[in-house]
Amino acid sequence: MRPPKTTGIHPTFPLFVRLAYVWLLISAALSVAAAGWDRAGGLWGASRHALTVGFFATMVFAIGQRVLPAFCGMHVLFSSRLMFAGLALLNVGCALRVSSEVGAYEGFAPSPWPLLPVSALIEMAAVTAFAVNLLVTFAQTPPHLRVDGRAIG
Question: Is 87 exposed, middle or buried (0-12, 13-18, 19+ CB in 10 A)?
Fold first, then answer.
């Protein structure tokens, strides 16, 4: 019928939505594995992280930046590049956390322990990028209330 409304969002948006579903499958697989082989909480923790950060947070970061500006006064997202940065950082941090949590907690390899706080910092940078992008978006005058680049009314 009509093309989707994608004004102002990063073109990789569909990729990240699909990636969220990949995280959901990874979480399910880790949960099944944890039921039989988890000894120290590494598989369960990785499964929860893949679900909460990989699936839920990626969906919020992707869908939220697409619909929230429109629902909150017909704004256009401030920066599609900041949207991409937040989504990319979130998924990199999640991949680092999930992969290192299994090895560290289950004792497969001691070297992943220092990666756990690094993954947290990367994910917090993603949350910051997401929040800044939306805050700046909502602080701007919506396009339908501007004339010649200036706010009206």
Answer: buried
| Phi and psi at residue 72, to the nearest 5° | -105, 50
C-alpha torsion 97→102→105→107, nearest 10:
-130
pTM of the model: 0.89
Q: Can you give the pLDDT at residue 91?
A: 98
- pLDDT over 70 percentage in the chain: 91
Q: Are 43 and 37 in contact (CB under 8 A)?
A: yes
Residues 114 and 18: their CA atoms lie apart, in Å, by 30
Burial of 109 (0-12, 13-18, 19+ CB in 10 A): exposed
Q: What is the largest CA-CA distance in the chain?
A: 64
Residue with tokens 């947070």: 57
Contact at 8 Å (CB) between 75 and 9?
no
Pull the structure tokens for residue 88. 């990319």
pLDDT tens digits for range 96-149: 999 999 999 988 877 899 999 999 999 999 999 999 999 999 998 876 676 666
Q: How confident is the model at residue 54 (pLDDT cuts 50, 70, 90)?
A: very high
